Amino acid sequence: MGKKISEFDKCISRIDTGSLKYDKYKGRDVIPMWVADMDFRSPEPVRDALRKRINHGIFGYSSVPGELIGVIVDKLKRDYGWIVSPRSIVPLPSVVVGLNLACRCTGSDGDEAIVFTPVYPPFLEAPPHSRRTLVMVPLACRNNFYTIDAQAFENAITKKTKTLLLCNPHNPVGRMFGKKELKAVAGVCLKNNITICSDEIHCELVLAGKKHIPIAAMSKEIEDITITLISAGKTFNLPGLNCGFAIIPNEKLRRAFKTAKVGIVEPFVNLFGLTASLAAYRDCEPWKKDLLIYLKKNKDILHKAVNTQMKPLSMGDVEATYLAWIDARKLNVADPVKFFEEAGVGLGDGSEFGLPGFVRLTFGCPRKVLLEALDRMRKAVNEHLVESV
Ligand SMILES: Cc1ncc(COP(=O)(O)O)c(C=O)c1O
C-alpha cells in the first residue's frame, strides 16, 4: 500500500476564491509566498463547526459565546500558567485593529510609540494612524540572529514615549524572545511608565524546542501595563474570518481600550470568526501538532537551500512563525522582490518592514510548492551570479 498523503501535502487551488495572496499574481506564473496565510485547509473540526452554523441559516447579530472565553482562559493557564479572568478578554475583529486601538488608548496626540524593526508593516502604520509619532529601534543582529537591544530601547525613550508595540514571536525575524530579553524590556517600560502592547498572534507556531513566554505572564506588575493580542487566525489558517482577542487584566487600561473602540469597531465580532475560533481553540490540538511537524520540515528544507545553494542569500533559524526573513543584500540587485517575481516567486518586500534588501517568504504551503519555488529561486540566483562575473 502507498504512503497516505498528508493533509498538508494536498495542493488545493485558491484561484478565484477571493484570495488576497493569489489575486496579486492572477494570470501570471508566480508562486505567491508574500502574505502571511497558509495554503492549507483549516482543520476539519473548524470546517464542521462552520458548516453546522451555516446550515442553521439565521445569521443575526453575534454575541460572544461564554464557552469561547472559557476555552481561552483555560488555554492560557494550561499553556503558560497564566491566570486571567474572563472579563480581561476583549474580542476584536482583528489583531491589527488591536494594535491601532492600543496606540489610540495610550498617551495622546504627538506622543511616541516605539517599535523594534524590522517589523510587520502595520506596526509602522498604527502610530501615525492615531496621531502618535513612530520611533523605530532596530533589533540587534549578528549572523542573522536578531535580539532586542534593551540599551538602544532605553536610549530612544523621551518624555513623550507612552507605548511599546512588541511583536513576540517576531514577524518577520522569527524570534521567540527569551525570559532575559523580555524582562529587560519590561523593566524599561515599568521604569518609564510605558504601556506594552504585545502582539502574540504567532505564539502557537513554535518550531524550536522552546516555550513561548507571554510577556504579561512574567509578573503581576508587567501584566498591569500590558495589552496582549492573540488570535486563532494564523495557527489554524482563518485570517479571512477576522477575529482576535485582546487580553487586558488592568481594568483602567481595559476601559480606555474599550472606549477607543466605541462607534468604530463596535459592537459585534463576525459570527463565523467566533464560531471558527471556538472550534480551533477547543478541538484542534492534534491538527496543530501535525502542522508544526510539517512546517518544521519545510523550514529545515528552506533553511538548507537558502544557506547552502543560494549564496549569497542567507537566513537565520525560524524559531516560530511560518515566515522566513532572507537577507538578499549581497545579491546586488536594485529590487530583490522584482528579481524573484521575474523568476516566478512572489515574496514580501523588506523595505515595507523597515529593512530594504531583505525579502520575506511564507513557507506555510505544500512541500511540492515550496520545492518548486526554491528551484526557481536557486536558478535565478545562480544565473544572476554567472551574468555578474
Ligand atoms: C504579527 C502579526 N500581527 C497581526 C497580523 C494580522 O492579524 P489580523 O489578521 O488578525 O489583523 C499578522 C499577520 O500576518 C501578523 O504577522
Q: Termini distance? A: 51 Å
Could you say which overall geometry the principal axes of the C-alpha atoms support? globular
Q: What's the average pLDDT? A: 97
Helical fraction equals 25-40%
The CATH topology label of the largest domain is Aspartate Aminotransferase, domain 2
In short:
With 389 residues, the protein is of the alpha/beta class. It folds into two domains: 141 residues, Aspartate Aminotransferase, domain 1; 235 residues, Type I PLP-dependent aspartate aminotransferase-like (Major domain) (Aspartate Aminotransferase, domain 2, 3-Layer(aba) Sandwich), CATH 3.40.640. The protein contains 13 helices and 15 strands.
Please outline the helices and strands.
Blueprint: H1 20-23, E1 31-32, H2 44-56, H3 66-80, E2 89-92, H4 95-104, E3 112-117, H5 121-129, E4 133-138, E5 140-142, E6 145-147, H6 150-156, E7 161-167, H7 179-191, E8 195-199, H8 220-223, E9 226-230, E10 244-247, H9 251-261, H10 271-283, H11 285-309, E11 314-315, E12 323-327, H12 336-342, E13 345-346, E14 348-349, E15 358-362, H13 367-388
Parallel strand pairs: 1-13, 3-4, 3-7, 7-8, 8-9
Antiparallel strand pairs: 2-10, 5-6, 9-10, 11-12, 12-15, 14-15
Bound molecules: pyridoxal-5'-phosphate.
